[in-house]
Amino acid sequence: MSFQLPHTVTQANALQLQKEGLLNIASLGTVNCAALQDFDSTVLTVLLAWRKKLQADGRFLVVEQPPEKLKVLANVYGVSALLGF
């Protein structure tokens, strides 16, 4: 089972999305980005917060189907390796 990111992740909904993911921690190990199209760097904050929580629980975050723009943003911010890109 995986957690599906929505079409849009921006500052407007990032905090709510982060909370939603933490409430669904059982399905959070794998995050599917297939629907993600409209986003900014706040999506990295959300993914890294989830990664931190999972790591504290001895689990890993797997990001599936990241769009190229997300990979570029992660590289620019120096977090590509943390997200497995």
What does this structure look like?
This protein has 85 residues and is of the alpha/beta class. 40% of the residues lie in helices and 14% in strands. The protein has a single domain, classed as 2-Layer Sandwich (Transcription Regulator spoIIAA). It has three helices and five strands; from the N terminus they run E-E-H-E-E-H-E-H. Strands 1-3-5 form a three-stranded parallel beta sheet, with no helix packed on it. The chain has a two-stranded parallel ribbon with strand order 2-4. Helix 1 packs parallel to helix 2. It is globular. The relative contact order is 0.20. The model has no long low-confidence stretch (mean pLDDT 95).
Summary tags:
three-stranded parallel beta sheet; globular; about 40% helix; single chain; about 80 residues; two-stranded parallel ribbon; Transcription Regulator spoIIAA; 3 helices
Number of domains: 1
Sheet with most strands: 3 strands, parallel
Percent helix, as a range, is 40-55%
- CATH architecture annotation: 2-Layer Sandwich
Uncertain stretches of 5 or more adjacent residues: none
Structure annotation, total helices: 3
Question: Beta-strand level of the residues, as a percent range?
Answer: 5-15%
Structural class: alpha/beta
The strand count comes to 5
Cα-based radius of gyration, to the nearest Å:
11 Å
The averaged pLDDT comes out at 95
CATH C-level class is Alpha Beta
End-to-end distance: 21 Å
Query: What would the principal axes of the Cα set say about the shape?
Result: globular
Examine the coordinates and then state which fold CATH places here, giving the name of the CATH topology: Transcription Regulator spoIIAA
Instruction: Output the helix-strand order.
Output: EEHEEHEH
CATH superfamily: STAS domain
Order of strands in the sheet with most strands: 1-3-5
